[in-house]
Amino acid sequence: MNENPRSDSLERIALEMTSTLGLSDVLSSITRGLVEDFDAAFARIWLLGPGDRCDVCQMADICANRDQCLHLTASAGMYTSIDGEHRRVPLGARKIGHIALSEGSLSTNDLMGDERVPNKAWLRETGLRSFAGHPLIFQEETLGVLALFSHRAMERDEFARVGVFANQAAVAIKTLSSSKRWNRAARATSSYCNQPGRGSTDSTRTAIPRS
């Protein structure tokens, strides 16, 4: 029997990166793995995206940058919807936005004492105690934030292991996003060359997009 289930999850993620699964499927697998392996209440991934839905965003009053924000992309555990209050998080706002802006991890076993979680009634109702959040960074490029909440106190080594998941997620995001862009460019090139009068004398050449 494998005594390290977290290793199994990381191996599964690596396998899915090389399969035909799309980005949303892989990110969902990562959040489910966090919930299962760390006995977390719920886990989520936000990706950096363009500022949108500003007119209906519940955090618009604390948003200092309308050009970019964090988009909730995957969620597992207690909350599986990605269309709730935290579907958009401004950069620098609360714990999640602070992680993305500072590019540093945050962890605590005392959520009730953390001023960056203003809804104390929600914490009392759910019994949430600990939090671990890490930026998703690939070669100095911030892609988003990975975070989990738990009902129990977490050990120091567990906080560090969440960071391993974050690193794996960043690789998956960048790899699959680059592959998607390459496929779009290849299809566009093929479509262009197949137009009447656009045929190339060298059909083996395909434009490769910059990463």
Characterize the structure shown:
The protein is α+β, with helices and mostly antiparallel strands and 211 residues long. The chain has a single domain, classed as Beta-Lactamase, CATH 3.30.450. The protein has helices at residues 5-17, 23-38, 94-102, 120-126, 156-193, and strands at 42-50, 68-77, 88-90, 106-108, 130-138, 141-150. It has a 6-stranded antiparallel β-sheet, sandwiched between helices. The chain is globular. The chain starts with a helix and ends in an 18-residue tail after the last helix. 28% of the residues are buried.
Note the main attributes of this structure.
single chain, 211 residues, alpha+beta, Beta-Lactamase, six-stranded antiparallel beta sheet, 5 helices, 21% strand, disordered C terminus
Number of helices: 5
CATH superfamily: GAF domain
- Report the mean per-residue pLDDT as an integer: 78
CATH class: Alpha Beta
Give me the secondary-structure category.
alpha+beta
The quaternary structure here is: single chain
- CA-based shape: globular
